[in-house]
Amino acid sequence: MSDPREFVRTLADENAAFWKGRDVRLDPAAPPARRLQQIRYRMRQGVYNELRSVELLAAWIPYTPEREIRELLAGQLDDEHRHWRLLRQRLLALGEDPDAYRALPEWEALFDWLVAARARPTLERLAMFQFTGETQSCEGFETLIALARDVDPETADLYAREILPDEYRHAAIGHRGLYLLADTPERQERVRAGCREMNERILAAYRAHRTRADRGD
Ligand SMILES: [Fe+2]
Ligand SMILES: [Fe+2]
């Protein structure tokens, strides 16, 4: 298969199939108090993730010669910085110290790996972070918003109004990049391998996240 659009459609279906029932960070069946605890944990880890996203985009931009993609990455960097500020402010308003949170080693390792991937071809990086990671994070935010509506409507609104629309745009950068660059069977194979690797790493981070959130530390 070498038509990029057809390839991207198939790959999106493969990713969606991989993720069925695998985002274990929140438990929809948990009683409200427990659900709220899980949401708070997501927010704390979220502050870290947004800031590391800024860092990784800054690291990638100089290694991205494709001018159109570079512009899009600069816009994304700006969005992630705004998300970091907004989430941090929300936690402060809730009486927490967002800077005291110790990030999970699995999330740290995931971002360290992505930053270190800066010199890999743009195509592979976009497959990993924007196409796979950001698409999955849209799914994750949809779930978070739905589960926060009754226990913390203000936070649900913040995610729905200020964060989720940007995340859909970030996932679209992945699509755009793949349409432009995944135009040979060899390149498509590298993209598919990048997606597979990213999926496994995110899954490991999600599982560790839930274990630690349940322990409450
Ligand atoms: Fe973000
Ligand atoms: Fe994002």
Short description:
By secondary structure, this protein is mostly helical. The chain has one domain: Heme oxygenase-like (Heme Oxygenase, Chain A).
Provide structural commentary.
- The protein has 217 residues and is an all-alpha fold.
- It has a single domain, classed as Heme oxygenase-like (Heme Oxygenase, Chain A), CATH 1.20.910.
- Helix content is 79%, strand content 0%.
- It contains 7 helices and no strands.
- The protein is globular.
- The termini are far apart.
- The site of one fe (ii) ion (FE2) has 6 residues, from helix 2, helix 3 and helix 6.
- One fe (ii) ion (FE2) binds next to helix 2, helix 3 and helix 6.
Secondary-structure-based class equals mainly alpha
In the predicted model, the low-confidence regions spanning at least 5 consecutive residues are none
The total of helices stands at: 7
Main beta sheet, described? none
Tell me the name of the CATH class.
Answer: Mainly Alpha
- E-strand count: 0
Q: List the bound ligands.
A: fe (ii) ion
Give the tally of structural domains: 1
Rg, alpha carbons? 17 Å
The third-level CATH topology is Heme Oxygenase, Chain A
